[in-house]
Amino acid sequence: MSGNTIGTLFAVTNFGESHGPAIGCVIDGCPPGMPLVESDIQADLDRRRPGTSRHVTQRNEPDAVEILSGVYEGKTTGTPIALLIRNTDQRSKDYSNIAESFRPGHADYTYWHKYGIRDPRGGGRSSARLTAPTVAAGAVAKKWLAQQYGVQFRACMTQLGELAIPFESWDHVQSNPFFAPVADVQQYEDYMDALRKAGDSCGARIRVQATGVPVGLGEPLYDKLDADIAHAMMGLNAVKGVEIGAGFASVAHRGTMHGDSMTPQGFRTNHAGGVLGGISTGQDLEVSIAIKPTSSIISPRESIDIHGKSTEVITKGRHDPCVGIRAAPIAEALLALVVMEHALRHRAQCGDVVPPVPPIQASFL
After folding, report:
1. Domains in the chain, ordered, with CATH?
2. Is there a contact between 244 and 350 (Cβ–Cβ < 8 Å)?
């Protein structure tokens, strides 16, 4: 499989390069009969699309999705769904100066050593451009999960560089370029303007949540729901850490605090992040990811070339000074793909299981 496919029952194979003619994916395993048109997918692609604000790459891609197969008369047929997104605004000449050198912190070095060849144009296969097909596939999964179970996904930025972003309301997330849950984002605008002028980049922290998740999704050992979530999130470019629920804060918790007490009316807390023993509790899935600073920056840095000689690297071109700014819809899509996979697994194995007692309410007191 060579690491380009995620999922088994809902298998998504991603293809293409940043500066190739097109990128896309093939979805194998989508149940038949679900209404599906391009506009169902395009909305999420527009949220991830480059060039949407001055704080992200100014590469002007429409990211218009085309459904090539797997849909007939507006409904999925159960056969593979091929989704295509054409590249229209490549500027490959911007990368000519790094064709024989390696950007510090970038995959240039490892790709060269693994394959003996690499596409330097925009990072080729290692480019964050390849997250667009992931978002497209996630939109398909989101629609099926919403129709079958009422599951909804949302994400927001909770930290930009060293600036923590307090949570005010989910209502603010779609009204600013940072996907920030606050009404006033001026300090983050100023921070990014200064960062760009300095020729530098920063990281970010993203919170992603799934609500309405049914009880029982996941497997007991190696395919735990939270393990698969972590695996998927680490597949996103630049992610260096994943937390489920309380995450690393659990280290400082006492058992009397951390265990989420249960009552007939619901859970009192959600430190577990909606997963116990690798299986969903019915509470909200709570995931947080840490994204490193962008490797492609215009500030000169020490490196080596393909001959092993010292060199200085300056990356030209159009780059996100913080790739985390556009990560929210990608994180949603990855979480949706994992939940979709486990929903289909659960339906196949345990679809006729009747719990001895009804599940407690998902919301906590």
Report:
1. 90-350 (3.60.150.10)
2. no
